[in-house]
């Protein structure tokens, strides 16, 4: 079973539907007993680094995620979920991440304009 972590910072149903379309056994949860049964964990996320970490703390998910990571359970971070796997992020203000990956998430410093592709050009 794959557990999608519900910490109120992501489009959980889109991730769940995508995995179900691949015929995967998937559940959305923040229950520690359910998370302990997972063969894999998905950590989606939309928003800011500090808010994501605040929500993980609020729902008491940091220790269980660290426990599962140390047990060798694969954890896939999607978007913001990937960013918070790192040691620290600087979005809004410096915030400690989960520390599963070495490094820091910093704002890109670019001089060029970033153009959004509209599918037409």
Descriptive account of the structure:
- The chain has 121 residues and is α/β, with parallel strands linked by helices.
- The protein has a single domain, classed as 3-Layer(aba) Sandwich (Rossmann fold).
- It is built from five helices and seven strands, in the order βαβαβααβαβββ.
- A four-stranded parallel beta sheet has the order 2-1-3-4.
- The protein is globular, with a radius of gyration of 16 Å.
- It starts with a strand and ends in a 16-residue tail after the last strand.
For the largest sheet, list the strands in their spatial order: 2-1-3-4
Helix/strand order, N-terminal first: EHEHEHHEHEEE
Mean of residue pLDDT values: 93
- Helix tally equals 5
**Radius of gyration from CA coordinates:** 16 Å
* CATH class group: Alpha Beta
Helix content: 25-40%
Shape label:
globular
- Domains counted in the coordinates: how many? 1
Largest sheet: 4 strands, parallel
Oligomer: single chain
Q: Stretches where pLDDT falls below 50 for ≥5 residues? A: none
